[in-house]
Amino acid sequence: MFGKIKIGDNTTIGANSVVNKSFEEGNCIIAGVPAKKVSDNTSAGYILGNK
Q1: Is the pTM for the entire model greater than 0.90?
Q2: What is the pLDDT of residues 16-48, one digit of tens each?
Q3: What long-range pairs does 3-10 form, CB within 8 A, spacing at least 24?
C-alpha cells in the first residue's frame, strides 16, 4: 500500500496486490496490480473457523 490509503471494514486484499488508492466502501475483495474491486462479496466463507 502506498500513501494515505483507507481500506473499509471487511475488505479482503489479494496476495501480491498493489493498493495505490483508497477502497473505503468495505465488504468487498480487491486484487491486482494496480488493485481494483473484483467482487462485492467478502471472503468470510473461505476463512477456516469463521461461521
Answers
A1: no
A2: 999 999 999 999 999 999 999 999 987 777 666
A3: 10/42, 10/44
Q: Phi/psi at 38 (nearest 5 deg)?
A: -110, -15
CA separation for the pair 10, 3 (Å, rounded)? 21
Q: Residues with Cβ < 8 Å from 22, sequence gap 6 or more? A: 5, 6, 7
Q: How many H-runs (helices) and E-runs (strands) does the chain carry?
A: 0, 3
For the record, the C-alpha cell of 2 comes out as: 502506498
Any idea how long the chain is? 51
Q: Is the dihedral of CA 9, 27, 34, 31 positive or negative?
A: positive
Rounded Cα gap, residues 26 and 19, in angstroms:
14
